[in-house]
Amino acid sequence: MSGRVLVGVKRVIDYAVKIRVKPDHSGVVTDGVKHSMNPFCEIAVEEAVKLKEKKLMKEVVVVSCGPQQSQETIRTALAMGADRGIHVEVSGKDYETLGPLQVSKILAALAKKEDAQLIILGKQAIDDDCNQTGQMTAALLDWPQGTFASEVSLEKDGIKVVREIDGGLETIKISTPAVLTADLRLNTPRYATLPNIMKAKKKKIANVKPADLGVDLTSRLEVLRVDEPPQRQAGMKVETVDDLVSKLKDAGKV
Amino acid sequence: MFVQLSHTSFAMVGIFQRSLRLRTSLRQLSFHKSTSPTDILSSLVLRGRLFPICSPFVFFSFRRTLHNSNDGPKSLSDTPPPRRPFCRVTQEDLTFFRTLLPGRAITDPDLLESSNVDWLKSVKGSSEVLLRPQTTEEVSQILRYCNSRNLAVNPQGGNTGLVGGSVPVHDEIVLSTALMNNILRFDDVSGILTCQSGCILENLSLYLEERGHIMPLDLGAKGSCQIGGNVATNAGGLRLLLYGSLHGTVLGLEVVLANGQVLDCLSTLRKDNTGYDLKQLFIGSEGTLGVITAVSILCPQKPKSVNVVFLGCETFEQLLKTFQLSRSMLGEILSAFEFLDSECLNLLRTHLKLHNPISDCPFYIVIETQGSDSNHDEEKLHNFLEEAMQSSLVVDGTVATEEAKIKALWSMRERITEALTHDGFTYKYDISLPVERIYQLVTDMRQHLGERAKSVVGYGHVGDGNLHLNITSPAKNPALLAAIEPFVYEWTAKFQGSISAEHGLGLKKRNYIYYRSS
Fold first, then answer.
1. Residue B389 needs a FRET pair 20 to 30 A away by CA distance; which of A45, B93, B297, B499 works?
2. Which helix (H) or strand (E) holds A200?
3. A189: which chain B residues are within 8 Å (Cβ-Cβ)?
């Protein structure tokens, strides 16, 4: 048992930023826009670091696929307590078409290469809301999956996962190695404190190319058009009930 | 019209006495007879800066004789002054108001409740009329009428003031600027915004953000406070360190004087040395000289890079050294330097469930940097943090560059006021002191009060030399108040500090101005 956890983190547009669609409707504006780590990935990193602190896992390795700037995201994870990082370089056209299928192939390859016991990911990314990478990775590796995890406990004979589902909470037990995806209530990510930020500067980030892992990045999807959601119409205030009824009649609702 | 302001008459006298240019005209006025500030103004102002004066009117009643600093306070801060002989509101008056402002002259006691009580719920007036004009012309007509009928008026903005100055003392008519919330003009080349005085600060910030600018001031009350009130109280806030006070950033004002006359100083010029700069009198006048109806203010560009740092220090001396270091290493990008003590953090934890982002320390600092280049700023910030850590000035800290985390770190400082209201009855003191003495007042006060107080906390704009000293007790306690005052004022006066750095005098501090000026 190597006791190694692989955590995937994604660099996305910061959730507080107002998104603007490109004039040619091919995508959203990303140049000069503030980016940060996907909030669910932060929760995944926090969970992995917690497991290491409890001495249930020995090493936390953080992975991100993307252009040069993804290294900042890896540094943030290192400042939160991860041990080392792997930056899978994907840029240009390949980065624009990078989706869950390609990322899960990369993660599966890395999991085998690094001999990982556990993969923890965020349940979904806030830019594409796919909610597929964790599930696809588990399928490719033929590992069990504990998705939408709101509670994780490592036991002698496996992992107990409490999942948030439509009907409430579901508790399952899965064997290791496994893939977990973090939901909102799993934990509260810690602030990266100064001493750790300083230490993170010295931690290693390895550079890897998808070709080295034998992964083919061609996408099966083509984005046809991106549009803003329709503008919300302003409401109207009326003074009396009669007014309301007549307005409803005019609008053909009554 | 009499404006019930004798409690701030000392402020008026104080301000006038200290200003050289007014001394000559004041010698001619007798303080035992009613004096009109418009007389004062008219004797000083050159032609063209004021409309011709129609008739002098009685504006102030200087019934109280001047204090000198050898007398003790005549009453404690929470005793209201007696009602002056203004007229009471009659049915005729109500008819006039209702005709002038259809649907906007309110007499329903339930609706009046919120205008009669201040934000801290510490003082309550008994006004029976709330007026909500929408234009300067309406304000002018209201004041002209009230002047002729000898009715007292209480101007009110967002009612977020902390010294009881925004609510009536007795039955004054409340004149609310809440409906005067239009933005008139924004020039995005120079960054000059012109708006009515009832615009809420946060709304102005949102409007400006869409146009690449920000307001030059920011305070915890931004969701409710109005720009007119900010100007009337010369609000300081969190950005004063970088952008300066409203005396510098306000370029022009439109004010309606007590007799209904509209004073148009609404210039949008950055530089104008033609005659006396009248608008400066109104900034910080707390509604005693007129009702501000429009403001033109210089707005800085929205910074492309904002970083917030939360640091922990062992001692106050180290905190001050960190301040010096930040001034030298961060220089022009330093936009805020605030501090709070461990007691504040305990209150935040207990009442608002906010967790400490770092390990527990005796003192915490919130530093904000604003600049136009994120690479440049981050490099400066990292160098500063490394230096601060290595020289052990700072024992722990965290950095935020994302908006959500920035808001979270700022809430550690901005929500202390809220946490205090949950802790019990709060006695608030807003003191300006020489920077090295700031925390000494807190420790001396703790020693002085001992077990009598529930919590004694200190926090504030240490970068501006401004301490917010707050003392809580489970309920209103006159004995505790007697122990706190005048101890806190005497202590402050001993070190040549100010007993009200930015909150103003209002009702609660009107008796203490002599601790600052003779």
1. A45
2. helix A194-200
3. none
Nearest Cα neighbor of B216 from B292, B296, B153 is: B296
Scanning A163-192 for CB atoms below 8 A from B yields: 188, 191-192
pLDDT tier at B462, thresholds 50, 70, 90 = confident
Task: Supply the pLDDT for residue A1.
Answer: 52
Give per-residue pLDDT as tens, B271-302. 888 888 889 999 999 999 999 999 999 999 99
Chain A residues with CB under 8 Å of B404 CB are 14-16
In this predicted model, what pLDDT tens digit does every residue of A170-196 receive, in sequence order? 999 999 999 999 999 999 998 888 888
Cβ–Cβ below 8 Å for B403 and A192: no
| Pairwise CA distance, residues A162 & B350, whole Å | 30
- List C-alpha distances in Å: B167 to A76, A169, B127, B160, B231: 49, 52, 9, 10, 17
Closest chain B CA to residue A72: B401
Residue A168 — left, alpha, or beta (φ > 0 → left; ψ -120 to 50 → alpha)?
left
* Partner-chain contact B358 A191, CB within 8 Å: yes
**One-letter amino acid for residue A225 of the chain:** R
Side-chain half-sphere of B47: how many Cα atoms within 13 Å?
A: 0
pLDDT at B509: 83
Contact status of B385 with chain A (Cβ, < 8 Å): yes
Beta strands in B98-170 (DSSP E): 105-106, 130-131, 153-156
Q: Does A194 touch chain B (CB under 8 A)?
A: yes
Average pLDDT, chain A: 93
Q: Which residue of B has its CA nearest to A189?
A: B357
A115 interfacial to chain B (CB closer than 8 Å): no
Nearest to B404 among A15, A188, A195 (CB): A15
The answer, yes or no, to whether residue B26 has pLDDT greater than 70, is: no
pLDDT at A41 over 90: yes
Q: A31: which residues sit within 8 A by CB, 6+ positions away?
A: none
> What does the pLDDT read at residue B518?
63
Measured distance CA(B431)–CA(B442) in Å, rounded? 11
B105: which strand partners? B131
Residue B162 in contact with residue B225, Cβ under 8 Å?
A: no
Query: CB–CB of B56/B43 below 8 Å?
Result: no
- Of A125, A94, A86, A92, residue with least CA distance to A206: A86
Write out the two tokens for B119: 């934000």
Neighbouring-strand partners of residue A16: none
Work out the minimum CA distance from A37 to partner chain B, whole angstroms: 10
Residue B238 is predicted with a pLDDT of 84
pTM flag (> 0.80): no
Which has the higher per-residue pLDDT, A158 or B49?
A: A158
> Which of A142-146, B439-443, B483-487 is predicted least confidently?
B483-487
pLDDT of amino acid A110: 96
Strands (DSSP E) found in B315-385:
334-341, 363-371
Quote the ipTM score.
0.75
B396 interface with A at CB cutoff 8 Å: yes
Buried b (16+ CB within 10 A) or exposed e, B33-49: ebbbbbbbbeebbeeeb
Rounded CA gap, A189 and A229, in Å? 31
Nearest CA of chain A to the CA of B58: how many Å? 43
B309 → chain A, closest CA residue: A194
**Residue in chain B nearest A188 by alpha carbon:** B355
Buried b (16+ CB within 10 A) or exposed e, B119-146: bbebbebebbbbbbbbebebbbbbbbbb
Orientation angle between helical segments B487-494 and B438-449, nearest 10 degrees: 150
Partner-chain residue, chosen from A16, A188, A193, that has the shortest CB–CB distance to B358? A193
CA distance A240 to chain B (A): 15
